[in-house]
Amino acid sequence: MFTHLFCLLFKVSGCGIPNYRPNTGRVVNGEEARPYSWPWQVSLESFFPTCGGTLIAPNWVLTAAHCITFHTYRVVLAEHDMNKEEGPEQFIMVEKIIIHPKWNDNCVSCGNDIALLKLEKNAIINDKVQPACLPQDGATLAHKQPCYVTGWGRLYSGGPRATTLQQALLPAVDHSTCSQSDWWGSSAKTTMVCAGGESKSACHGDSGGPLNCQGRDGKYVQGVTSFVDGRGCNTPQKPSLHPCGLFHPLDQ
């Protein structure tokens, strides 16, 4: 199911180039994103906002498996300021939840922290809502390749959640570095992307959202925000981990 779906998604054209160009400056601790500049960003809600997600097709959203703790969800597209409705938002209920068959909710660091959400109806694709580009199977990131994490997570460890969409530059960290004992060690799997680890990382509440990385012809979502160091966000040598195993066959 997962493999077949993503083989079809690779054929999506015109993705990865937002109509509203992101502000991609090198802000150390993140900044408010330009509205609608990450048009595949989704807010996942069950009574209240819980996680982020990525629109990968008109009726499919990619998120983290650990975000799924309830039975009823809706997604909000074209969201920017959570404190008010600004007009372009689309609210769509989730019809079906598919969690990675190898996900273990007692072991987030074991990997496979991925879920697919089928929407009750197609999102309306426009200049503020677009599906993400996904990388080809086997694609890898160069060390320090620029990537951005986006979401409404906590602004800092123990701090308040953001009310407007935030972005932070998180350069990719290659596996040989990320898997060193003083970094993540064996918790860094080859099916994960490490990003950040200096003065910034994803934070609690960013979970499920996209890791957006620059490619030659646009931006690609290389992984799902999964977890950060238990000591808090922005811990040196503890980049956030983003499972990317969904882009490989899942029936092995």
From TrEMBL:
Presence of the UniProt keyword Nucleus in the record: no
GO cellular component terms given for this protein: extracellular space
Signal sequence annotation: 1-16
Domain Peptidase S1: 27-252
Any one GO MF annotation of this record: serine-type endopeptidase activity
GO biological-process terms attached to the record: proteolysis
Swiss-Prot/TrEMBL keywords: Disulfide bond, Hydrolase, Protease, Serine protease, Signal
InterPro entries (UniProt xref): Peptidase_S1_Elastase_sf, Peptidase_S1_PA, Peptidase_S1_PA_chymotrypsin, Peptidase_S1A, Trypsin_dom, TRYPSIN_HIS, TRYPSIN_SER
PANTHER family in the cross-refs: CHYMOTRYPSIN-LIKE ELASTASE FAMILY MEMBER, CHYMOTRYPSIN-LIKE ELASTASE FAMILY MEMBER 3B
Protein's UniProt name: Peptidase S1 domain-containing protein
